[in-house]
């Protein structure tokens, strides 16, 4: 190999003489979704202090570094914003709970007198992860929520319904792809359609679901029409 000459050679020699080193200190740990690994992994949250090195020996402080998140599996460092992304397990729970809340909202708007609507809602909730959900349980929950005027609805789409849906869907929506948000709205629409055409109250509830999922009103209208069309 030919020796390194010129400016590059001088830079390489200088880097061997003078450099910087970061000493990392763990300040927390937990589980996160690692973008590098593509799955749930353990992590350490690190803060660092930089030092100027002379011939590899730290001699002068050069300020702080981080904080960063270090994956215990791949060792890569990421910005702390990666902790805002739910783990796979947490995401599954959020999605399951969202489906349950949406089903209750649609049933509350349309009433629980239709066995077909209850069966469709219960099947949707079971598919989302509540394996033991029954029609009678959903009906009882809707009745209990309707009686709890401090939280739920004196009107079909009152402030209580809007709050409940936003509490469940707002944290989830940023982590769902557009197709996933649309799928959740379509599931709600099929529950509403199980016993016939949309009622005005059901349309209001579905519009609230769409808004909480950050689906624009034109797309909500399109999706509700698509759900009404037999496949």
UniProtKB/TrEMBL annotation:
SUPFAM superfamilies according to UniProt: TerB-like
Origin: domain of life: Bacteria
Coiled-coil ranges (or none): none
Residues annotated as domain Co-chaperone DjlA N-terminal: 99-222
Pfam families xref list: TerB
Protein name: Co-chaperone DjlA N-terminal domain-containing protein
Organism the protein comes from: Streptomyces corchorusii
Phylogenetic placement of the source organism: Bacteria, Bacillati, Actinomycetota, Actinomycetes, Kitasatosporales
